[in-house]
Amino acid sequence: MAAGKILAFVERRDGQVKRPSLEVVSTARSLADPRGAEVEAVALGPGAHGHAESLGAHGADRLLTAEDPHLELYAPEAYAATLAEVARRRGAGVVLLPGTTMGRDLAPRVAARLGTGCLSDLVEVELADDGTLRGRRPVYSGKAYARVAIPRARPAVATLRPNVFPAASRGRGPAEVVAVESALPAERIRVRAARVERAVEQELDVAEASIIVSGGRGLKAPENFSLVRDLASALGGAVGASRAVVDEGWIPHAHQVGQTGKVVSPGLYVACGISGAIQHLAGMSTARVIVAINKDPDAPIFKVADYGIVGDLFEVLPKLTRAIRDLKSEG
Amino acid sequence: MKILVGIKHVPHTETKIKIAADGVSLDDSGVKMVVSPYDEYALEEALRIRDSRGGGEVVVVSAGGDGAQASLRQGLAMGADRALLIKDARYDRADGLARARALAAVARSEKPDVILLGKYGVGADENQTGAMLAELLDLPHAGGISALDLADGRFTARREIEGAVEIMEGTLPAVLTADKGLNDPRYPSLKGIMAAKKKPLEVKTLEELGLDPSDLAEGLRVVWESLELPAPRQAGRILQGDADEAVSELVRLLREQARVV
Q: Is the dihedral angle over the CA atoms A292, A224, B161, A62 positive or is it negative?
């Protein structure tokens, strides 16, 4: 049986391709290889052909590009129509997208257009011989995992959680570029990203970061978040927060980790003054290494922490920041 | 302006997860069920739009078993004008597309100017129904919005993306899904709760809505094969000594044992 192609949607922002999309291409290659299937990357917007080399190296046989200027910024209807049309024409058995804000917004729209199923936010994925896409995904904000599958509907659509899958360069040559057309003319687009506003000081997003330092009520006042920021900056990580302090308005919701915030899986998570409510633990307990700093030795956060310091964070955090800076300056 | 708000009836976010004997569903004994928190932002926004314009109608709709009536009543108590249940207990486990098709059937007969939902129903955490609904209805959508302006048949919405904010502009009618930060949902007042008892709550079957029951057949699209609890983390070490000692031991462990710095 000829294996259907595996399509990998590549998200472009400011003309750049970020790591979650490389993870998708690389994972598509791993699924394709045992079955002799082809991997086709799809990238939209002007200049998309410029990624042929890096996407090829990560595993794409071909790079399908629609370079219409109206696809430069995210336009849900046009992106979905184009990706669905490509999936149909190219005979895709599987369509993978990064589990980024864009990917998770786009994937269901594509799936609905194709009348098929969509698996969201997979942390494991496999492709069975009969073409069934199967995976594992966090549910109940990470308090449980579901094993899910699409046994019949085709193509099977799925998003992959960023930071979980490898983005291996395989030393392959550039992908063959194939131009396709936008499936929706500009005048029929009824919604689009008019612009993207970046914070004045570019902040690393918790969903993308491999190191996160989070603060909670133990910081006592919003201005004390500077202690968390300093440590995050020394570690090269992102700043996270508990729901309690987001609700207090100490820091914007974008930083919230846990249920009704972001579910994260960094390599290192440092919880400062966070007691560890069940909703917060659900959002971060898949971190590889967890450090907790809290003055209450009975705080639930210590039950999941690999390393704990029971102490006054106002004393511990500055010392820790200094120690990390010293370590980094030694190289 | 008529606004349709999709509501999902879900386990409270504080629920401790126990897996039922079938190995794939949640043991819901003693579990408190609530309106999914993101749907509360959606409903609050709908109520504010209606009230700021001095008129219009807010209709809450849910697909699910009889239990979902409690969440619809909660929506009425918050201030919605009427409610509609698409009744079939299989929706509690249905995939995004089946749920979107159910809501689409209602939207086709109600013809709202705006459809608001939460960005996802907590629990399944899929983030699918809103975008799928928009595609089925051939409408524009903006997902996970934290600010919204409506004027002259158009919307402007902000949504948080990785490290930035994306401003989405589009035309109405549209499907919009709410993120936290959009507003601060109200608690139903006692008066609201009393009034809700008299507001209309219509229960419709799939047949009445022209929906195909075979769309809810097991195995059609997304199948949940099993549910499992994450491997429990082992509590680690509490580092002893004063702050200086604990910090230098921590840095040593992060470098030498965990190799993360």
A: negative
Going by C-alpha positions, the residue among A83, A113, A89 that lies closest to residue A182 is: A83
Residue extent(s) of CATH 3.40.50.620 domains in chain B? 2-216
**B 190-229 residues with CB below 8 A of A?**
219-229
- Measured between CA atoms, the residue of chain A closest to residue B168 is A193
B245 lies within 8 A of chain A by CB: no
Substitution target in A18, A74, A118 with the highest count of B β-carbons within 10 Å is A118
Contact of A230 with A317, CB cutoff 8 Å: yes
Q: How far is B215 from chain A (nearest CA, A)?
A: 11
Rg of the Cα atoms in chain B: 22
For B162, other C-beta atoms within 10 Å of its C-beta total 20
B222 with A118: Cβ contact below 8 A? yes
State ipTM: 0.94
CA distance linking residue A242 with residue A65, whole number of Å: 41
What is the C-alpha to C-alpha distance for residues A51 and B6, in angstroms, rounded to an integer? Answer: 40
Q: Do B260 and A268 lie within an 8 Å CB cutoff?
A: yes
B253 touches chain A (CB under 8 A): yes
Return the axis-axis angle of helices A76-90 and B129-137, rounded to nearest 10°.
80
Size of interface A-B (CB pairs under 8 A): 280
A111 touches chain B (CB under 8 A): yes
Reported pTM: 0.92
Q: What is the DSSP string of A284-318?
A: HTT-SEEEEEES-TT-GGGGT-SEEEES-HHHHHH
Q: Of B97, B165, B167, which has the smallest distance from its Cβ to A112's Cβ?
A: B97
Which domains does chain A possess?
Answer: 5-188 (3.40.50.620), 211-330 (3.40.50.1220)
State how far residue A173 is from chain B, nearest Cα, in angstroms: 30
B201 to chain A, minimum CA–CA distance in Å?
29
Average pLDDT per 10 consecutive residues for chain A, totaling 331 residues: 84 94 98 96 98 98 98 98 98 97 98 98 96 96 94 97 91 96 97 89 82 97 97 96 95 91 92 95 91 96 96 97 93 64
Q: For domain B2-216, give the CATH number.
A: 3.40.50.620
